[in-house]
Amino acid sequence: MINSPKIRKIVYGGDYNPEQWPEEVWHEDMRLFKEAGVDIVTLNVFSWAMLQPSEDEYDFSTLDRIMELVKENGLFVCMATSTAAHPAWMAKRHPDITRVESNGMKRSFGARHNSCPNSPTYRKYAPELARRLAERYKGFDNIVAWHVSNEFGGECYCENCAKAFREWVKSRYGTIEEVNRAWNTAFWSHTFYDFDEIVPADLRSEEFSWDGQLRTNFQGISLDYRRFLSDSMLECFKLERDELKKITPDIPVTTNLMGWYKPLDYKKWADEMDFVSWDNYPNYDSGPAYPAAVHDTMRGFKGGQPFCLMEQSPSVSNWHIYCKLKRPGVMRLWSWQAVAHGADTVMFFQMRRSIGACEKYHSALIDHAGRNDTRVFKEMAALGAELKKIGGQTLGTRIKADIAIVFDWENWWAAELSAGPSRLINYCSEVSSYYNALFSRNIAVDFIAPDGDMSKYKLVIAPLLYMNHEGYDERVREYVKGGGTYITTYFSGWVDDNDLVLPGGYPGKQKDILGIWVEESDALPEGEENSFIYKGTEYPAGTLCDIMHPEGAREIAVYEREFYSGTPVLTVNDFGSGRASYVGCHSNDAFYAAYLSDICAELGIEPVLDTPQDVEVTRRENDEYSFLFVLNHKDEKSEVRLREGGTDILTDKVYGSGDLLPLNRKGVAIIRTEKK
Amino acid sequence: MINSPKIRKIVYGGDYNPEQWPEEVWHEDMRLFKEAGVDIVTLNVFSWAMLQPSEDEYDFSTLDRIMELVKENGLFVCMATSTAAHPAWMAKRHPDITRVESNGMKRSFGARHNSCPNSPTYRKYAPELARRLAERYKGFDNIVAWHVSNEFGGECYCENCAKAFREWVKSRYGTIEEVNRAWNTAFWSHTFYDFDEIVPADLRSEEFSWDGQLRTNFQGISLDYRRFLSDSMLECFKLERDELKKITPDIPVTTNLMGWYKPLDYKKWADEMDFVSWDNYPNYDSGPAYPAAVHDTMRGFKGGQPFCLMEQSPSVSNWHIYCKLKRPGVMRLWSWQAVAHGADTVMFFQMRRSIGACEKYHSALIDHAGRNDTRVFKEMAALGAELKKIGGQTLGTRIKADIAIVFDWENWWAAELSAGPSRLINYCSEVSSYYNALFSRNIAVDFIAPDGDMSKYKLVIAPLLYMNHEGYDERVREYVKGGGTYITTYFSGWVDDNDLVLPGGYPGKQKDILGIWVEESDALPEGEENSFIYKGTEYPAGTLCDIMHPEGAREIAVYEREFYSGTPVLTVNDFGSGRASYVGCHSNDAFYAAYLSDICAELGIEPVLDTPQDVEVTRRENDEYSFLFVLNHKDEKSEVRLREGGTDILTDKVYGSGDLLPLNRKGVAIIRTEKK
Amino acid sequence: MINSPKIRKIVYGGDYNPEQWPEEVWHEDMRLFKEAGVDIVTLNVFSWAMLQPSEDEYDFSTLDRIMELVKENGLFVCMATSTAAHPAWMAKRHPDITRVESNGMKRSFGARHNSCPNSPTYRKYAPELARRLAERYKGFDNIVAWHVSNEFGGECYCENCAKAFREWVKSRYGTIEEVNRAWNTAFWSHTFYDFDEIVPADLRSEEFSWDGQLRTNFQGISLDYRRFLSDSMLECFKLERDELKKITPDIPVTTNLMGWYKPLDYKKWADEMDFVSWDNYPNYDSGPAYPAAVHDTMRGFKGGQPFCLMEQSPSVSNWHIYCKLKRPGVMRLWSWQAVAHGADTVMFFQMRRSIGACEKYHSALIDHAGRNDTRVFKEMAALGAELKKIGGQTLGTRIKADIAIVFDWENWWAAELSAGPSRLINYCSEVSSYYNALFSRNIAVDFIAPDGDMSKYKLVIAPLLYMNHEGYDERVREYVKGGGTYITTYFSGWVDDNDLVLPGGYPGKQKDILGIWVEESDALPEGEENSFIYKGTEYPAGTLCDIMHPEGAREIAVYEREFYSGTPVLTVNDFGSGRASYVGCHSNDAFYAAYLSDICAELGIEPVLDTPQDVEVTRRENDEYSFLFVLNHKDEKSEVRLREGGTDILTDKVYGSGDLLPLNRKGVAIIRTEKK
Predict the structure, then answer these.
(1) Which residues neighbour C300 within 8 Å (Cβ) at sequence distance 6 or greater?
(2) For testing the chain C interface, which of A157, A181, A188 should be mutated: the one with the most C CBs within 10 Å?
(3) Which position among C50, C349, C513, C675 has the lowest Cβ density within 10 Å, counted as fewest Cβ atoms?
């Protein structure tokens, strides 16, 4: 689907479950798909019970008919392996397949994403089903991707997981002595003498709820259990992928990610996937910056390669507590926003709305009314036509960014499990503070992992990067020495990979780079704040106020209140040919906008275009063309002045350099400019 | 107790537990009962452990003495079967009798209402105890009713329940194929191949908590588990009832219901009871409309036949989080309100306040002080005298209503389990919106089940009737065709008995009757609202705003805002000789008052009497007399102008037509008028 | 440590865990301890896993080296027994040692304070370890106390506890008949025929959550299970203590209490301890009165004997949801506050901050930076010098109080488990209302148990003393008859030791003393209030408004509103040579201040000194000297006028009678005055 030679345009379609409907409906679906410009369907996501009615029996007859039908109708297929929900008979006959919750509650049968990742039954039957699917449908050349399982996630704490965890720990640390060191088990008499004494970190052992947040007594164990669960599920993915690859080595394999989904270390996952795909379900009031940030995160997993927008909702998502309708134009606008950030597909959950069970009030191309004259159908058909019109022009184009934000799952876990200094510590929110300031100015951002290549960027920002992975400070040191600009914040660089504090004062190994020593950090309760003046304007300081001693760095701003009034809150340190800045507290959006604007200006980092508020612009390009995506998120008309001329490929209108581009409410334009 | 030839007045008394006290206290109780005008006691509600000290041993000696004593003292007995709390030895010896909670937690021994309804032990010993009680006390002709168990309720998810559930499912659906269809198991790979694969819908399978509300992944399974639990407990009721009937066929059998108690489908229960009885415990701030609505619901179960007010509190209820005292006059006022809505008894929990365990701070006729000069005792004695004074005049009288509200337990479950479109969906609150508008105008209302007889009514209102039971639309169609007026609302008629969406657009099979098609429904978050103008006044529109297309109906009002501004929110459709109105959103009390007043005026439906706010009036009547109950819920005096003359049977004062009837603070009058 | 002849000054130091660090760090620690004036360390708190690596193996080698080192460095040792967290191998090999939660969740291994108090394994190995420690280190004459386990607490509901509970019940009540009487099991068919039928009061039996509060169906059983758990843990303490005493009879034994910690009946515990020690961790916003009240409670356990401040934090406590720094001066101020209220030690958790697991962000003398120039280190070193300077002058001095407040754990449990009349019933908050009024006026208060000696006091206050322990009313009667003044409040004296209501009207057996009968109590919801006028000022009345009949008492104030307007809310009764006052509701701080000031004035009870608001003064004294502790809790400077002259032993400044004593922000002075 991504980089496939078969695909010549942005594919359009999504999840389709004909097995839930009588066959006469299928033909009506084909007719409506054509009308809407649908050219791809994701099939077979939840059919395990149908495909394998019992231990040794497989029945592909219905799927055969579906496959024939969609092929006849010229549809591409994104082929799922159906292993995201096991059959009821399997749960009954092999109870090891169901999960155990953190409090020890053994699940019976139900829901989905319900298989223990270390269940021998699951690990036997899931790859087996993948293998049989590949074997049976390898001849269908309209299959453009394998979609393994669906939205991997959740947790298990069963005895099989406990055993596998012990093996995982053994393989990570080698000796029990090293485990004791890494987890600091001398604390609270936790010394283990044998791997068999280790138990999962859960509500029965180290974890508990505290003021509504999950806490742990042993960060090291809890961190490793999260790593282990993410790895366990990734192994399940790999088991299926490997079976598929053996038979259809040329069909790319993916699984649909869920954006900033905390439990799984998606960077590690993406490394095992042929291309990245994800499901975008922002809340009705989330604003455009949040999905933009997540799109950029997904794009970053494979160094900027386009990704697949696998799911979004045509209108409402049933699980939101208020299923507010997507307003007219929003579905189209958000579809183009995905493309503007690097998506090469526009896909949905779902093609036809089911009549029973919990997703029946999730929107679909074909509603319960079954009509082609609904608002949603008409909007989708119009988008389908638009996609047909522009064809493959933008496929494979890339985004160029001068700025990278470091984003790290393990740090996310560690920072929020740390047991102090504040319940307000919120990793994604801190990352968003920095991202949003750049987003609002249309400055392109890449997301990289802590071990990502910094050398390509003029500026690297690492908000709240509490965990200094082994070697991370060294990479930053080289980057800054070599002329890079680095910004990091309060509660960064305190600990190693095991959440062990790096001794000698905060921020551990980064003190020399930043030219500071943080002696104390004052956690201000919700509603309390300190303040500082930056370039003549006063901004709030809160969450954590670092009290620091410059050791080489220059003060940019100082606290105005409290006993540490007059001590620095913002610093910059010249280091090698570059410089390293430190933001010692959480502040507000106005501050991040001002601060990052100044730094961008100094570094010569320019916006793609200056626009009115809530008009977003991105640029995708290849060797020949640049495509300017202009997205009006406002509820009224707007306009932007173009720097370069070009053609709006949606309307064929031609604009000259300096022309005003008019935008409807929720309007979109894509200005193609030929490169000189 | 209801329709009993032995009973010549409104019986007065309630729960009495002498077995908790030394025998010398019993005689003091008899003296005080006489002083207070008590003539009935409910005995033996929680004595199982006393009556059956071990597996094969029964000991009725204490109960024998109690029965002799109350008989000597001329008291009627409402005789409970004591099966609402099993003995500790039974829980120890037969653990199957204790329940398992939704999360799998096995209960030990404790509390009450603690027996698994599918426990073989419970189903053996409970009817056995009922049989022995009937056998032993059949000679007591002062027993006027059997009171089976007590406040049936709660839930169980044990293995015995799981087995019984499978049988229940089999008996409902016949084949596993039909189960799969009804539950739409093709969704999420839930296909069952054998009944044995089915498990209870609970926290271990399909259910979970979401933003503080219980949700389910499979509405069909969860709905059926609720049906099953209600039926299981009803079977327990019937097992006891049948034993009692064998021995004392002439003593009516009841069990005390709890009003709008969600877990049990009380309409189905009422069909198995000889008369309806219930326990009325409004919160201190609930206002008079809520208990009125519930009284009317209870009265509706048996087509308007009087019911028994089995319990209410003399003053505080211990389980309220603030045990605010019932103000002077309130106990009397609320007692008469029950009668005004169809009760033929005035009974209380409890006669003497216990000294230990959790109900010791629940109020009683005889307080811990043991005195006859407490405020509560004096108020109760005064009411006792009043009841004696009026005698049996009102017994058996009926209320006549031109309006019916459809109320349905299964719909309640389904609408609130639906997984979208809004967490604000609240069935009882929507029903109350319509009821309260009529209540505040003293317009009589009956409650009927969806299969109830509509033909008697000029107006039938079905608020938020999400579930269109098989055949329901056909009954509505006939009713409206025949000249009836029908009102229904947003989120009505969407699904069938299994919560499967009725295809072809909302509201499914009722589209022709209502003359509309609802394309989309916009769930507005708490605090957001749209608006519309009805007869010159602007009203809010919220919760769910249906966006609809008239297909024959006339617009009465349209939305004022949002992209669906100008589209209809209120419609009316002429259909046959009648008409069907649709209210496409939730609005406010002022709207419901205005709208229903207009409709009542058009239909010639008149208030019993026009009164100042918070003065309630109802009418009960028989062939000879009409009794006007006038209830002043205000904290100050009031007065009402009588349309017809008559005699206040509480004071013997005579009023002429058009006279002003003065009312004290919390005052009551009952004006008897002879029919011409 | 307390009353030890070896100790000549206020010892200074705290918890020290060198076993968590490489040995080279130990020597650096010794150097820094000297610099900070540390002279005592608490060792070996969490080393069980290190000391006992397996079933039959013990290894004291590391502890030996630590003991040698601290001895060489002249440090006293408070020697812990390490039994507060069992080893992982023990949990694996002997699962009986881990706890079961109230919902039946069996814990695996983790956290601390994790041993079931009735585990045979725990009861075998814990005393065994204590014995071996005593045997091995008995020769170290720098051991000044044994510190058994650590912060005993928590709960267990396992089968071993159930068995032990049955034995406990048997031993308390003798016969099953007496159990049935005490628990009022005739209610809800709870009659037990055999002790084996009894189960723990937990979420599986009688308890449940109600509006966020824990409730029970059977107060008697729940109360006894709390008694039993407190006793079970106390037995564990005694098992260790007895082993220690056999070998080192002269070393006093303690365990660190946690102030107003609800689960354990600390008065009973204190009776088994050689001296009282406790851990003081107020929240950043708790204000000075709360720790003062708890200090006074701790001091009261042993009739005013000085106690040990075992733990406090140098700055932040990691488990607070916002780890706000202790402001400069606060650590010193709060240390002196402890001394001012009777502490003879100033000790901390912890000496060196650990690098891993959940307490790594708890403050320490030696921070992660490992430096002696941090703010915290410098403040602590300054305090160390101060303590050295004043030496042993204040050791053993006592506080004299004319007022006692009755504080009772069992009453705390009972009042808050009572199931009505109001969720606002809060024992500690009511006690604090009275305490704070006296605290704010610098009037000394002792805390006594209900069976404490009242005769020493001019005034005894028993706020919300719901439970009238057997004989309590008799002691009050004698006290008041003999001339004492007694104040009690609403919801006092209602029940006996088993939460059985004392019949005949509230407050049961105290009616004659108070000269009143309370007929009803009106629980006002949060936000609602009544009012009364006391000496010309109007005050609010809320939570519970008792409606009472004077039976000898005089009215002091009456309600102004509601149907009980004009009835008494404050009364006083002359009884014998004394008088008994009753406060029939909860009011506000202004009322308590006014009311208690008047009573103190009448009784000739004087403040230690009149001071500006938030400047606290206490007096400790011995036969020769009086020490006036002056503590400025304000954020600005202040001053107080001295009544008597003396020398500030912190500064050696001499003040004459009537002089102004200046105080810095958070400043402290200790004025020594020689007795004439």
Answers:
(1) C407, C446, C447, C448, C449, C452
(2) A188
(3) C675
- For C:155-184, CB contacts with B below 8 A are 183-184
Rounded mean pLDDT of C138-145? 98
Chain B residues touching A86 at Cβ < 8 A: 189
Looking at the partner chain, which of A188, A211, A563 has a beta carbon nearest the beta carbon of C357?
Answer: A188
Is C329 an 8 Å CB contact of chain A? Answer: no
pLDDT at A609: 98
CA distance B545 to C453: 71
Using CA atoms, how far residue A211 sits from A226, A424, B108, C320, C322, in Å, is: 21, 12, 30, 10, 11
Beta-carbon separation of C217 and B82 below 8 A: no
User: Is B434 contained in some domain?
Assistant: yes
pTM of this prediction?
0.97
Identify the closest residue of chain A to B422 by CA–CA distance: A322
B238 occurs within a structural domain: yes
C449 and C386 in a common domain = no
What is the Cα–Cα distance from A113 to B413, expressed in whole angstroms?
26
Q: What is the pLDDT of residues C451-500, one digit of tens each?
A: 999 999 999 999 999 999 999 999 999 999 999 999 999 999 999 999 99
Give the pLDDT confidence score for residue C676 in this predicted structure: 80
Neighbours of chain C (3+ CB pairs under 8 A): A, B
Q: Write down which residue in C363, C390, C417 finishes a domain.
A: C390
- Mean pLDDT on C535-546: 98
- In a domain? residue B609: no
- B203 in A contact zone (CB under 8 Å): yes
Are B193 and A89 within 8 A, CB to CB?
yes
Residue A420 has pLDDT above 90, yes or no: no
pLDDT tens for A428-469 read 999 999 999 999 999 999 999 999 999 999 999 999 999 999
Contact A420 C17 (CB under 8 A): no
Helix B159-173 crosses helix B176-183 at what angle (to 10 degrees)?
A: 100
Q: Give catalytic residue positions of B.
A: 151, 311
Q: Are residues B179 and B130 in the same domain?
A: no
Structural domain boundaries enclosing C548: 403-603
Contact list in B for residue A18 (CB cut-off 8 A) is: none
Q: Does C188 touch chain B (CB under 8 A)?
A: yes
Residue C400 forms contact with A (CB below 8 Å): no
For chain B, what is the domain count? 4
Bridge partners (DSSP) listed for residue A487: A461, A581
The answer to whether B322 contacts C526, with C-beta atoms less than 8 Å apart, is yes
Confidence at residue C3, expressed as pLDDT on a 0 to 100 scale: 87
CATH number of the domain where residue C61 is located: 3.20.20.80
What is the C-alpha separation between A476 and A470, in angstroms, rounded? 12
For residue A332, pLDDT beyond 90:
yes
Q: What percent of chain B has pLDDT over 70?
A: 100
What is this model's ipTM?
A: 0.96
Same structural domain, C538 and C430? yes
B2-11, C263-272, C607-616 — which is least confidently predicted? B2-11
Q: Where are the beta strands (DSSP E) in C158-283?
A: 207-210, 213-216, 253-254, 256-257, 277-279
Q: Do B355 and C189 touch (CB under 8 A)?
A: no
Is A243 labeled as catalytic in the residue annotation?
no
Considering the domain architecture, whether residues A24 and A108 belong to the same structural domain is answered as yes
Residues of chain A with C-beta less than 8 angstroms from the C-beta of B189: 46-50, 82, 84-87, 112
Cβ contact, residue pair B189, A371, below 8 Å? no
Q: Give CA–CA dist B47/C191, Å, rounded.
A: 9
B4 inside domain: no
Q: Confidence band (pLDDT; 50, 70, 90) for A419?
A: confident
Domain stop point among A603, A628, A656: A603
d(CA B39, CA B27): 15
Q: How would DSSP label each residue in B142-164? A: TEEEEE-SSS------SHHHHHH
